[in-house]
Amino acid sequence: MPLDKPYLDIPGTTIFDADQARKGYHLNQFAKSLMDAGNRERFKADERAYLDEWDMTDDQKQAVIDRDFNRILELGGNIYFVAKVGACDGLSYVEIVSSMTENDAAGHQAMMLAGGRSPDGNRYLHEWEGRGEDEESDG
After folding, report:
1. Where are the domains positioned within the chain?
2. 46 half-sphere exposure, CB direction, 13 A CA radius
């Protein structure tokens, strides 16, 4: 019997739980390997060859190649390991995280320093069920 996971209904959020950890185990081990300078050099020299050394799905490998950080998280990535991928490109943590939002790095940093994103307009997934596509948001 599957566990009830009401927290999966948080808008715009991928929760890293035990299921995500299992799904992303090899993806995260790959990302963790980038903590070693020699591995970073091998990865940067031939990304696909290095990725093919890991027992990752094709979708996981493609998300890494595309630097689609939101997709990497959906496929089981842990943000703290996934940040190692962006760091290989010389990106700061703020640049990596802002690429997952509607803001550029400066805008994201300013928003976070001002207290974070407003929850206004956020909707839980269950609140969207049954809504027509042409209906206006009420918040």
Report:
1. 15-115
2. 4
**Nearest-angstrom CA–CA distance, 32 and 118:** 33
Note the CATH architecture for domain 15-115: Orthogonal Bundle (1.10)
Q: pTM above 0.70?
A: yes
Check: CB of residue 28 under 8 Å from CB of residue 77: yes
Say if residues 124 and 11 touch (Cβ distance below 8 Å): yes
Can you tell me the distance from the alpha carbon of 124 to that of 139, in angstroms, rounded to the nearest whole number?
Answer: 12
> In the predicted model, is pLDDT for residue 139 greater than 50?
no
Q: Summarize pLDDT for 11-37 with one digit per residue, the tens.
A: 677 788 888 899 999 999 999 999 999
94 Ramachandran zone, left/alpha/beta (phi>0; psi -120 to 50) = alpha
Structure tokens at 6: 């009401």
CB within 8 Å of 59: residues ≥ 6 apart: 71, 75
